[in-house]
Amino acid sequence: NSIIIAQAGLDFSPVLVQVPGAGSSDLSTNDFGSGDGGFTVSPPVTPETDWTYTPGSWRSNGQESGFGESNVSYLTSPPYTLTRSGIFTLTFSHRFSFEVGFDGGVVEYNINGGAYKRVPASAFTLNGYNVSLGVDAVAPLINQQAFGSNSPGHPAFITSTCRAGVGNAGDVVTVRFM
Predict the structure, then answer these.
(1) Residue 85 vs residues 25, 110, 171: alpha-carbon distances, Å
(2) pLDDT at 20 (0 to 100)
(3) Other Cβ atoms closer than 10 A to 45
(4) What residues are paired with 97 via a beta bridge?
(5) Is the Cβ–Cβ distance between 86 and 19 less than 8 Å?
(6) pLDDT tens string for the chain (178 positions)?
(7) How many CB atoms lie under 10 A from the CB of residue 77?
(8) Most exposed: 34, 102, 118, 173, by fewest CB within 10 Å?
(9) Do 172 and 112 touch, CB atoms closer than 8 A?
(10) Are 47 and 118 in contact (CB under 8 A)?
């Protein structure tokens, strides 16, 4: 099972944008083709599950040897400072293939170092969460909506867009993929 955020030779880097009123402005300039974008991995779980960067992409393969154990790993963006108050959106291209009913992926954000908040399914305007996981899911995703099973058209990439949150000018935002 894997999630790929970007692929070599293609521009699939996540873009964080502010959308106040009639205008918008990019906050991120990630280009995974020329580096890891400043993203970090935490907490380390196992070499099988941890997000890994290779030129052009970030990937988490899941784990087979730890079957039945939580293997949650986070890919966290560098901090972005909001230049004005308003909604900030996140657009990213990815593909996924998770064990049906047990595993999934979600997007979270924090403002000014506070607790991470899950981006709700209702915030997606394009290709949002596609499953509701039950009580057999990994602990952080029990009874949660998530990306699960296979992405539409897998192994092709899809683009997802969400209204990630609302902040004030000067707030510092980070986004993470679980």
Answers:
(1) 12, 15, 9
(2) 54
(3) 19
(4) 150
(5) yes
(6) 334 444 333 444 567 677 655 455 666 656 677 888 889 998 777 777 788 888 888 888 776 655 556 678 899 999 988 888 888 888 888 889 888 887 889 999 999 999 999 999 999 999 999 999 888 777 788 889 999 999 999 999 899 989 888 889 899 999 999 8
(7) 21
(8) 34
(9) yes
(10) no
Q: Which two structure tokens, joined as six digits, stand for 60?
A: 């988490």
And the tokens for 170? 């000067």
Compute the half-sphere exposure of residue 118: CA atoms within 13 Å on the CB side of its CA: 14
For residue 43, whether the previous peptide bond is cis, meaning omega lies within 30 degrees of 0, is: yes
Residue type, 150: N
> Are 125 and 74 a contacting pair, CB within 8 Å?
no
Tokens 């915030």 map to which residue? 123
162 touches 123 (CB < 8 A): yes
Distance CA 33, CA 70 (A): 31
The model scores a pTM over 0.85: no
Amino acid of residue 137: A
